[in-house]
Amino acid sequence: MVKKWLGFVTAVACLCLLFLGNTVSAAEVSSSVDDIAYVDVSAKRLVLKYEDFSSSGYTYTVTNTATGDAVASGSVDSGKSRLNINLGDNYSSDTQYKLVLTGSNGDTLTVNYLTAQAVGELKATKKSDNSMLTSWTVSSTSTYDGYYVLLTSGSSSPTVKVSATATSGSSTSKSIASSKLSNMTYTVHLISYKKVGGTIYCGQGLTTSIDYVVKPGKVTGVTVTAKTNGAKLTWNKVSGATYYNIYKCKTSSGTYKSVKTKVTGTSATVTGLSAGKNWYFKVVAVTKVGSTKATGAKSSAVKTYVPVDAGKGTGLTLTQDSNNNLAIKWNKTSKATGYRIYYKKKTGLTYQKLGSTKKTTYSLTKLDADTKYNIYVVAYTTVGSKKYLSNQTSKTLTVKPSKYLEKNYYILQAKKVRTIGYSGSKCIYTTKKYSTEVKEAFVNYKGYSSKTKYLIWISHYTQQVSIFKGSKGNWKMIRTFICATGTASNHSPIGVYKITYKESGWYYTNSKELYVTHWCGRNSFHTRPLYNDGTVKTATIGKPASHGCVRCYNQDAKYIYDNMPIGTTVVSY
Q1: For residue 226, which of 288, 156, 159, 277 has the smallest C-alpha distance?
Q2: Distance between CA atoms of 492 and 520, rounded to whole angstroms?
Q3: Are the beta carbons of 495 and 467 closer than 8 angstroms?
Q4: How many CB atoms lie within 10 A of CB 73?
Q5: Distance CA 91, CA 109 (A)
Q6: Taking a C-beta distance cutoff of 8 angstroms, is the pair 306, 381 a contact?
């Protein structure tokens, strides 16, 4: 009879259902894999995990079966499905207790407990054949009729994963086949039971835990693709693997060293490899549960040649080819065997290959003349028939290659520049400023030169001073700022001049002008008029206001005074 009842509830593990009054059937209140009942002797408490059978909660009472005295009572919300009832001072050894759990719908569940102590030292170990051995000690073989072993997962509301068949009262171990187990952390429950007068009593229970891990299989299907200074590996998924580790070596039979760990997918890119040589790789699967891990056998070695990085293309600029078409040019990299050009429309999302060349120039005739594009260059090396792109790209140029711009780039930009005009006592000027592109195009197209590496342009029309560094035809702007040139009645000189000499300042009775740099007689760069205490006397700037000099903010006048050498060309236009 005991075995028949236990066979019915299997993993319920001694959950005793007595149908008293309006009780529910076993099928209604219990699952064959979800109910656990036992006595936690050390904590003096009764444990019950059950399947919900009331949507509005429960009340419970615990009575001493021999005396009929109530020793505990309380309530539990629906959805909790777990009770830990501490009996405290009402707990007695070798005593029978009855727990009645009543749902708000009137259905009841009755479980009988026996507090006898007979077992101890529960252990769980994984055997070499991957089965699990649970073992325990028994102080008295007559106390209980037998034991159940349950494996659960989870803590707050554990779910039964494995239920082993019952053992006899004298048993001290139970094996569970590997076919029933999975890689996970199990809580192992040893639950004793005893049949008294036709009633099943749930007895002492012990728990322990084990990180059950099975060694994963060998990784197969490894392939490798060379990249610049690196390699990409892919492989087949290994059942049960948590992650993969990758190892590298410079020889096939040498000592492999870890290069990448805890890869959760089935591909990875290894970087930082010495270029220009062969590399060998192996992959291994690792299964980890909790703090325990098992490592499989390394895969067969795969080999690839890692090419030299071709380097970064520098100095990318616009130019013209021999047919006056717009082109790009860049500096040669010492290790490159060729270059690949990429482009996309300014409003586009992805770059496409525009072409390849072994030269350091490339014409843009394939592009739509009236569309704006982003363009960059990538150098590559060739090994056999394969091309390996550098990990580094050139800077990105943005260009709209209209036919007129292709043939007249500097002319087009330079023609935007005009000088100041006069109408009676009024100056015709603007507060809008030229772009850097227009400024550089103007001074380069005009062919201005300087005896120093600097060039200064005074734009009377925009009331700006721009300073360039470089040489004839290759001036690059390094500083620009607003100024105040001469009024309509006191024009500043127009023409090409040079810095002749400098004075620390002009000083008057109650005012001064500092950092005086002469460029045409007494016409010079200097600060706005200042009082002797340094405060500004005449604040006007950004529009014509002087008697022919170029007034600047203090820091700008000082910059010219400190940094522009005698002989520097000054273009006043």
Answers
A1: 277
A2: 9
A3: no
A4: 12
A5: 21
A6: no
Name the nearest CA neighbour of 184 among 265, 126, 246: 126
Per-run averaged pLDDT (10 residues), the chain, 573 residues: 28 34 31 68 94 89 96 92 93 96 92 96 96 96 94 82 89 95 95 93 96 97 88 96 97 95 97 90 97 96 90 87 79 92 93 96 91 94 85 90 65 81 93 93 94 98 98 97 97 97 96 98 97 96 97 98 98 97
Q: Give CA–CA dist 481/7, Å, rounded.
A: 94
Residue type, 17: L
Distance in angstroms between the alpha carbons of the first and the last residue of the chain: 115
| Secondary element (H or E) of residue 556 | helix 554-563
SS3 290: coil
User: What is d(CA 413, CA 415) in angstroms, rounded to the nearest whole number?
Assistant: 5
Do 229 and 391 meet the contact criterion of CB atoms below 8 Å apart? Answer: yes
Tokens of 532: 């002797």
pLDDT of 493 reads 96
Which among 391, 308, 319, 389 is positioned nearest to 360, based on CA atoms?
319
Is the CA virtual torsion 551, 553, 555, 559 positive or negative?
Answer: negative
Instruction: Tell me how far apart the alpha carbons of residues 496 and 547 are, in angstroms, rounded to a whole number.
Output: 19
Q: Which ranges constitute the DSSP H helices of 354-421?
A: 403-414
**Residue 420 is which amino acid?**
I
- Rg of the chain on CA atoms, in Å: 45
pTM of this structure: 0.55
164: three-class secondary structure by DSSP: coil
State residue 403's pLDDT score.
Answer: 57
Provide the greatest CA pair distance for the chain.
Answer: 128
How many residues belong to the chain?
Answer: 573
Tell me the backbone φ, ψ of residue 454, rounded to 5 degrees.
-125, 155
Cα separation, 479 vs 77, in Å, equals: 76
Residues 391 and 378 sit within 8 Å (Cβ to Cβ)? no
* Angle between the N-to-C axes of helices 403-414 and 436-445, in degrees from 0 to 180, rounded to the nearest 10: 80
The neighbour count for residue 119, using CB atoms within 10 Å, is: 24
Q: Cα–Cα distances in Å, from 335 out to 309, 329, 339, 389, 390?
A: 7, 17, 11, 12, 10
Q: Return the SS3 of 271.
A: strand
Among 464, 60, 1, smallest CA distance to 200 is for 1
Which strand (E) or helix (H) includes residue 379? strand 373-383
Query: CA nearest 43: which of 206, 209, 208, 210?
Result: 206
Question: d(Cα 505, Cα 484) in Å, to the nearest integer?
Answer: 18
Pairing between β-strand 45-49 and β-strand 530-531 as defined by DSSP bridges = unpaired
The pLDDT score that the predictor gives to residue 324 is 60
Alpha-carbon span 107 to 53, nearest angstrom: 8
DSSP symbols for 473-525: T--EEEEEEE-B-B-TTSPPP-EEEE--EEEEEEE-SSEEEEEEEEEETTEEE
Task: Calculate the CA 453 to chain-centre distance.
Answer: 47
Other CB atoms within a 10 A radius of the CB of residue 97 amount to 25
What's 432-469 look like in SS3? CCCCHHHHHHHHHHCCCCCCCCEEEEEECCCCEEEEEE
